[in-house]
Specification:
heterodimer; A: 112 residues; mainly beta; 6-stranded mixed β-sheet; 5-stranded antiparallel β-sheet; 11 strands; globular; B: 116 residues; 7-stranded mixed β-sheet; 4-stranded antiparallel β-sheet
């Protein structure tokens, strides 16, 4: 079983739609959680951290369910510029270096 | 210096040749990471440095791979006797210290390796 699993998609949605991505992680010791965004042939960039209480950044909302080892990302009012791959990322505190483990990524295409 | 720099951006090499990539992290970051990413996959951890010490190597890092960070600043990743399966994007990232909630890595633009 992969440490971080995501539905690879692709998700094709019209502008203005709401879309949600899910992610599960296998290691219950995981302590930090992130969503990264990666544009085609570019490096991953931090989109947002995921806090236990859930957090929002503009049109983006992240949720964490520790009991189910499940993370989600909700994008409201999708824009064409949201088209990218969204990577679910976890970190296991307790290791000295804080290795980040990435999911496969979920591809989102927003069309006019 | 406002980001992580990697050089070269692209490298095409013949199978069996050696290649070396360079990464310059954000200057105040003492932690440096190498990842490899193939098409359709997320980045996979290769190795990690804290200052000049290499503290972890993935099983993905075969004997043909070696990484150094001699003065705790820039790092190099060398691949000897390249194989077609080494074709990938090699990503370097840095962070200022122990990862904590709210702070991830900063990645460089990557070096895209094609072995022909």
């Amino acid at each position: 079983r992969k440490e971080v699993e995501q539905d690879p998609g692709p998700f094709n949605v019209p502008e203005g739609a709401t879309v949600a991505f899910n992610c599960t992680y296998s290691n219950s010791a995981s302590q930090s959680f992130f969503w990264y965004r990666q544009d085609c042939r570019k490096e991953p960039k931090l989109l947002m951290s995921v806090y236990s209480s859930g957090n929002e950044d503009g049109r983006f909302t992240a949720q964490l369910n520790r009991a189910s080892q499940y993370i989600s990302l909700l994008i409201r009012d999708s824009k064409l510029s949201d088209s990218a791959t969204y990577l679910c990322v976890v970190n296991i505190i307790g290791t000295s270096y804080g290795k980040l483990t990435f999911g496969q990524g979920t591809i989102l295409t927003v069309h006019p | 210096d406002t980001g992580v720099s990697q050089d070269p951006r692209h490298k095409i090499t013949k199978r069996g040749q050696n290649v070396t990539f360079r990464c310059d992290p954000i200057s105040e970051h003492n932690r440096l990471y190498w990842y490899r990413q193939t098409l359709g996959q997320g980045p996979e951890f290769l190795t990690y440095f804290q200052n000049e010490a290499q503290l972890e190597k993935s099983r993905l890092l075969s004997d043909r791979f070696s990484a150094e960070r001699p003065k705790g600043s820039f790092s190099t990743l060398e691949i000897q006797r390249t194989e077609q399966g080494d074709s990938a994007m090699y990503l370097c990232a840095s962070s200022p210290g122990q990862l904590s909630q709210g702070y991830g890595y900063t990645f460089g633009s990557g070096t895209r390796l094609t072995v022909v």
